[in-house]
Amino acid sequence: MRIFVKASPGLQLPKEGNPRSYITDSEAVAVDSSHYYQKALIDGDLIELSETEFLAEQAPVAVKANSASSGKAAAKDAA
């Protein structure tokens, strides 16, 4: 089962199995509902999001990515 989480404000949590990569408070991620993440939720290190909240946070990221690529294309056309 997947859960949607982000770090509590001001915290970073190492990802399970990849301790050099972090879950931050600036971006929500989908992770497996493992003991590691369940304990982090109980300890208050992570905040669980609903699927709707997760998708709402992902939408602005997609819009920014599309805007950036559109801007590059427009600049290329203008040149």
Short description:
Helix content is 47%, strand content 29%. The chain has 79 residues and is α+β, with helices and mostly antiparallel strands.
Please give the structural blueprint.
Layout: E1 2-7, E2 13-15, E3 18-23, E4 29-32, H1 35-43, E5 46-49, H2 51-78
Antiparallel strand pairs: 1-4, 1-5, 2-3
Could you describe the 3D structure shown?
The structure is a single chain. Helices cover 47% and strands 29% of the residues. It has helices at residues 35-43, 51-78; strands at residues 2-7, 13-15, 18-23, 29-32, 46-49. The strands form two sheets. A three-stranded antiparallel beta sheet has the order 4-1-5. A hairpin with a 2-residue loop joins strand 2 (13-15) and strand 3 (18-23). The chain starts with a strand and ends with a helix. The model has no long low-confidence stretch (mean pLDDT 87).
* Secondary-structure element order, N to C: EEEEHEH
Major sheet: order of its strands? 4-1-5
- Overall shape: globular
What's the average pLDDT? Answer: 87
Question: Approximately what portion of the residues adopt beta-strand conformation?
Answer: 25-35%
Q: Give the radius of gyration.
A: 16 Å
Report, as a whole number of angstroms, the end-to-end distance: 49 Å
Total strands: 5
Helix content: 40-55%
DSSP helix count? 2
Which stretches are poorly predicted, pLDDT < 50 over at least 5 residues? none
Largest sheet: 3 strands, antiparallel
Class per helix and strand makeup: alpha+beta
